Structures are given as structure tokens and as C-alpha cells.
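pasting for ref
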Amino acid sequence: MAVFTLRKVNLTLAVVTLLSVASAQTASNRVESITLTLRGGEFERALQLLQPALQASPKDPQLWTLQGLAYSGKGNQKAALVSYNSALKIAPDYLPALEGAAQLEYDAGHAAATPLLEHVLRLRPNETTSHAMLAVLAYRKRDCATAVQHFAQSGSVLDSQPGALHEYGACLMALKQTEKAIAVFQRILAAHPEDSRARRGLAVAQLGAEKPNDAIETLQPLLMASDPAVSTLQLAAAAYEAHQDTPNAVKTLRNAIVKEPRNVGLYVDFANMAMTHQSFQTGIEMINAGLNLQPDAAELYLARGVLYVQLADYDRAETDFEKAEALDPQQSLSAAAQGMIAEEKNQNNPEEALATVRSKLARKPRDPFLWYLQAAILAQKAPAPGSREFQQALQSAKQAVTLQRSLLAAHNVLGKLYLQAGQTELSIKECRAVLQDSPADQTALYHLVLALRRTNDRSEIPELLKRLAKARQDAAKEEAEHNRYKLLVEPSTQRKQ
């Protein structure tokens, strides 16, 4: 988290200065003595002086705040927070206590910092550091709309915090405000020209603004390094390709693959490039090289299946799609399902996620999305057809579509379960219901192909595979943009350029 200090100077000295002025106004020798002791860094002595003062005036928010400063100076942040909160119970608008408590909560990364900082801004709307802190906290929650609003009001306080500026740029990119993002990353590089992460961020923003030539120029210092990072090469390849310099794009991407031959994303990028230039067999050969090293990569089978479709080799395409499904059942879930399941944390602990959904269902038994989510979690566990869990998944999906016929994700889960149960016609019906409203739904297209293979009428399969390949190609483009965005939101762990 970016390191900010309220009032842009050392918090203890700032607040003590305020308090010493107040003490002069009240002519309190005792308070003046305590503030002078704090200013001198004698925190233990200050605590000793505060004990009788608080006994005499237990309702004085100034004294409680001074005690918070003393404890904070000693490194006892828990006791300091208790003292600040005691002051705020007496005087909720007491600014020094608000700032002290907000600083401690922010430094600890606690959500409680947000309402405190918002309270500070109600009292001092133009307090730039509070805006900067709220921006960082919003960014951590992936609330970019709120983060950008506060970053914009942070002013020059961000200049000393390149990490916060980077987060500002990342959020602007997430909101598709590419020109503003370019300006932010240029601001970082003006002060820190050696910041390779900011340089990549600027290139991502320039690429997003359809300025590939600018992106290439931005990346040149990194590309000229003795050992450029794979992320730099991958980004440069995308910029070259967008600039219609395919030879350099291919060369750069091949260099990246040589450096990191087990990186599945690089092979997928190459396959997408091959698709664009109708070099389908070349793309297949590169995917084959990737599969020799990563034989269980579902993404590679999907990519190769798309290329086989372009060659009208439908049998091999179906085989690859089926292999991808077997390796990664999540590939068959809709984007909504994947997102919600990830939110329920079932990838790490499916039983915990299931328990969470069931507890919600107990309170809201007619919520179609909860029934769907239960079905999706159970389905992703791949229960055997006929088992108790399989039947529960099937009944949950049925309940979801009964309660909300328009819930396409539930139809997709139900279609998959019917297919696994051997109820082919019912599976076909569910797939067609989805495709009627969402013609490019990859899940429904794929399951419809599998279901039709079990019938006597396979005439529709080639056209469905073409639609699936097109949908997958479009999704791959979106995924490439998302991966570039990940360069912005994930701090680099490597020192290479």
C-alpha cells in the first residue's frame, strides 16, 4: 500500500503543533508540558504526565489524543487507536483524533480507515492526502470509479508516490480512459525514467489508445536491455502486430517463447496471430510445440481446435474441444459462473463456498441465482452421474430456471448436466434456449456440438464449430487485453527489463 501521512508531514509533529496552539489558547501549563515532551520524543515521560491529567479531565478529547500520539510514538498502535477512539467518543469531529485514527487504520490496511477519512473530508474537503488514501483503499477493493475520483483530487501529493500513481493509471485503463492513463504514466516516467513497470504501463495505455507506434517507442529502452523480460517482449509483439509489422511481431514473440517455453499465454498469442494472417498450419505447429511441454494446458487445446476449424478439420477440432473440457471443466462454465464461483472462493475451498451458498439459500429460498450458484459449484466438482451430489446439482439448476427462465447461466449448467446424464434431447433443448438469446455463448455452442454428436443428425455441427471458433477468437482478443491490464495491476516480481 502506498505510504501516505496526513498533512504531508510527520503526523506526530503536525498534530502536536495544533495541540500546542490549543494549549496556549487555554493557558494550560499541564497540556503545554505534555506537548513539549511529545515534541522532544519523550513518549514514556508524556504518558506519565498524561495519567494525572486524564484523571482530572477524563472528558478532554485533547488529552486522549495526546495519549494516542504518545502510544503511537512508542510503537503501541493498538493502545494509540484506543486513545484516539476515546477522544472521538467525546468529540466526534475532533480533527487531530480523526486524523490519528485514520492514519493507524490506513497503515494497517483496515477497511475502518475509509469512514474515518471520509469524516476528515467532510471537515476539510480539500485535504489532498485524505483523498489519496481513500483512492488507494478503493483501488485495493477494485472500485476504480471511486478510486479515480479521489486520485484526481489528490494533487501533487501523488508525485512522491509512484506506486499510487501507477494504481491511478491502472484504474483509468480499467475505465477505458486511455488518454488520461497515458498522462499519468508519463507523469511517473518524467520523475522516474528508470521505472520499467511504469514504462510498460505507458505502453499498455498507448496500445489501448490505438497508438502502437508510440507504444513501440516507449518500450525501446526495455527492449534494448541485455535480457528483456518476457512481459516486455509479449507486449512489444502485440504493439508490432497492431502497427502491422508482423515480421517483428513474430520474431519478438518467438524470442519470448524461447525465454519462457512453458508460458501457455505466449503460444495462444502466436495462435491468434496465425489466425489473423490465415497461417493456420503454422499456428497448429506452434501449439503442438507448446503441448509437448505443457500437455495438460486446456487453453492450448482450445486454441488448436479453433485453428482446426479454419482448416475444416472438424473431427480434430471436436477432439481438441473435448480434451479441453476434460482438462478444465471450468472452461465449460459461463463467465458469470466463473466470476461468482471465484467470489465464493470455491477454487480454494469448494465445501466452504457450498456452505456459504446453502446458508444464504436458507434465508432466501426463492433466489434463482443462489440455486444456480449451488448447481454450478456442485457441477464443477464433477460428481458422477446418478450420485447424490449430481442429483442435487441437477435439481438446483432446474429450480434456478424455474424461478427465472432468463437466467442463461443456469440453462448452461442444466444443459451440461443433462448431457452427462445421457439425456441428450433435454441437453439440446437447454443449449438452444441459451443460443436464442446469446448466439455467441461458447458454453452452449460447445455442449450443443457434443449433444448433436450423439444423435443421427450431425449436419449442423460444422456450422456450430465455426461459430464456436469465432466466439473463441473474439474471447481470446478480450483475454489478451485483460492480460495486458494484469501487467498494470500486478506488481512485477522480476527485476529484468
